[in-house]
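Action item from last meeting closed. Structure (303 res):
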């Protein structure tokens, strides 16, 4: 279907084949442009019954429930769930900290794999995909579309993304909440180096606008473990001053600060009810995506 996807370094054809059997579904009703597989906030034609309502002149008589009339001597029509396609908006953090990686992958490489795979799966099932790269502001942005040629454009931007500059993801999320016009699936890939309270405000803004929000929180195993044995020069990859320190002297304070930060992020997740996945980038990304996709099939959107 998509001729040159096999040449992309961040796509694994075998992983795509295995994951393609699991649909990418929305947890909340979507507002698309064509019939699809996702719940809509509107009523329409579907095989899934929604409710009865009283007949009013002009209703389609084919939707009349004559059995209900026989039981109650009142006219009722059946309403069904309307199904539509979704618009998947990927938000990729391309700030300087995403260039860090202590193993085979940097955070940006891991994010490319997730974003590229989800883009392919969404377009394959008839949904639209867009991409916004974020650093100090919006670096590059393309609106959601669903044709294979557009998907190749998404792949090109993913391949060319270079992590640099400061993190300003919170203001950008507020901007996207106001500029994405209809309900969409917003997938954020970031290390979320921002104040948790500010992140909470941005996520609540997105939820207020009826978007289905997913966050992939990417961390390097060395950031989590802090296994340094000798004096080190720690460089701020987003432009701040470098710090020379003895790891043994600061390890305790580092772990305490990390635990507090992760606890605050977890509190943000609980309060905003987003679909949150914290990932260490040494984890198999296919397993992480399998967990993400199967989890969503069990929580199909409600009105």
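Sequence:
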């Amino acid at each position: 279907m998509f001729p040159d996807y096999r040449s992309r370094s961040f796509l694994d054809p075998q992983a795509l084949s295995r994951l393609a059997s699991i649909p990418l579904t929305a947890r909340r009703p979507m507002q698309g442009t064509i019939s699809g597989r996702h719940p809509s906030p509107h009523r329409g034609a579907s095989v899934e019954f929604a409710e009865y309502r009283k007949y009013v002149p002009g209703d389609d008589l084919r939707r009349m429930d004559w059995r209900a009339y026989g039981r109650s001597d009142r006219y009722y029509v059946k309403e069904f769930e309307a199904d539509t396609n979704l618009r998947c908006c990927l938000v990729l953090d391309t700030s300087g900290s995403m260039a860090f990686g202590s193993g085979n992958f940097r955070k940006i490489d891991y994010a490319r794999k997730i974003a590229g795979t989800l883009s392919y799966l969404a377009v394959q099932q008839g949904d639209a995909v867009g991409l916004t790269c974020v650093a100090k502001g919006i670096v590059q942005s393309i609106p959601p579309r669903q044709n294979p040629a557009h998907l190749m454009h998404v792949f090109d931007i993913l391949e060319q993304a270079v992590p640099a500059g400061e993190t300003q993801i919170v203001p950008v999320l507020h901007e996207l909440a106001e500029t994405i016009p209809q309900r969409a699936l917003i997938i954020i890939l970031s290390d979320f180096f921002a104040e948790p309270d500010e992140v909470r405000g941005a996520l609540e803004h997105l939820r207020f606008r009826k978007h289905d929000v997913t966050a992939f929180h990417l961390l390097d195993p060395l950031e989590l473990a802090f296994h340094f044995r000798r004096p080190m020069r720690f460089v701020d990859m987003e432009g701040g001053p470098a710090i020379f320190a003895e790891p043994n002297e600061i390890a305790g304070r580092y772990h305490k600060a990390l635990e507090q930060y992760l606890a605050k992020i977890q509190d943000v997740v609980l309060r905003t009810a987003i679909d949150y996945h914290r990932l260490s980038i040494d984890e198999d990304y296919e397993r992480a995506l399998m967990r993400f996709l199967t989890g969503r099939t069990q929580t199909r959107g409600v009105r």
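Note appended to the action item: The first helix runs from residue 13 to 19.
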